[in-house]
């Protein structure tokens, strides 16, 4: 075999490989109708992650500068100024402290209960839609597996309808088409699972700051004047 023939054969093989290359979009189309709910879940998971991340980031502010100003106003007896300071800060901690300031003069237990109730509402707001993200993390792989089972059934039906010997190409194409939905479901599920756990960890940090700040405020009210 001459060098020219080797080059020609290599070029032909490369051309065949290029023709056999399938794009991601073509793979998505091959997955069939099951890819539609998986794609929708990916879009919803992405939106929820970004929306929750921005909300939690906004809530996860350093409360030290805010609390130092509130303490100064409360110790001076300027309760209205302290409440005004709280209303200017759009954060869960500020709303908790504002509620506590509005109850100054009441028994300490009443103030603690008021702050705790507001804190529970703020935590509920922070955790909003996280259960949806967790549901997507579990449902996406299951839907993908369902698509694979349906695809395998269709592939075997097509094989049973073939007369004579079944070509390996028909068998392999049916199987890889069926497996596409499982791959897509796992990808979406893994992304949603990681996003959910990351957001939960961020929420826990905010909750810790809320608890610490509420204790600090209660201690402030017990300081001798």
Structure in words:
- With 225 residues, this protein is an all-alpha fold.
- It has 2 domains: 28-52 and 129-206; 62-126.
- The chain is 83% helix and 0% strand.
- Helix 3 runs antiparallel to helix 8 (130-160).
- The N and C termini lie far apart (102 Å).
- Residues 3-19 have low confidence and may be disordered.
Oligomeric composition of the shown chains:
single chain
Overall number of structural domains: 2
Strand content: under 5%
Order of helices and strands: HHHHHHHHH
Whole-angstrom Rg: 30 Å
What's the overall geometry?
rod-shaped
Straight-line N-to-C gap: 102 Å
Give the number of helices: 9
Portion of residues in helices?
A: over 70%
Runs in which pLDDT lies below 50 for 5 or more consecutive residues are 3-19
In brief, what are we looking at here?
The protein is mainly α and 225 residues long. It is 83% helix and 0% strand. Helix 4 runs antiparallel to helix 5.
Draw up the topology in text.
Layout: H1 3-20, H2 24-30, H3 35-59, H4 64-75, H5 79-87, H6 92-102, H7 108-126, H8 130-160, H9 168-222
Keyphrases for this structure?
single chain; 225 residues; mainly alpha; 2 domains; disordered N terminus
């Amino acid at each position: 075999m001459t060098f020219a023939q080797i080059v020609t054969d290599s070029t032909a093989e490369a051309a065949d490989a290029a023709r056999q290359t399938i794009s991601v979009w073509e793979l998505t189309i091959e997955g069939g109708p099951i890819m539609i709910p998986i794609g929708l879940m990916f879009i919803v998971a992405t939106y929820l992650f970004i929306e929750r991340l921005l909300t939690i980031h906004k809530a996860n502010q350093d409360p030290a500068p805010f609390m130092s100003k509130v303490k100064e106003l409360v110790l001076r007896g300027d309760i209205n100024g302290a409440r005004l300071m709280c209303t200017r800060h759009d954060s869960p901690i500020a709303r908790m402290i504002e509620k506590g300031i509005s109850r100054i003069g009441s028994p300490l237990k009443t103030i603690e209960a008021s702050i705790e109730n507001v804190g529970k509402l703020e935590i509920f707001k922070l955790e909003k839609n996280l259960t949806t993200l967790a549901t997507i993390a579990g449902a996406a792989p299951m839907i993908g597996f369902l698509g694979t089972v349906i695809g395998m059934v269709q592939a075997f039906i097509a094989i049973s309808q073939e007369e004579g010997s079944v070509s390996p190409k028909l068998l392999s194409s049916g199987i890889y088409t069926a497996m596409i939905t499982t791959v897509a479901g796992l990808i979406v599920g893994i992304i949603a699972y990681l996003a959910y756990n990351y957001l939960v960890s961020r929420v826990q940090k905010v909750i810790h700051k809320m608890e610490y700040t509420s204790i600090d405020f209660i201690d402030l009210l017990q300081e001798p004047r």
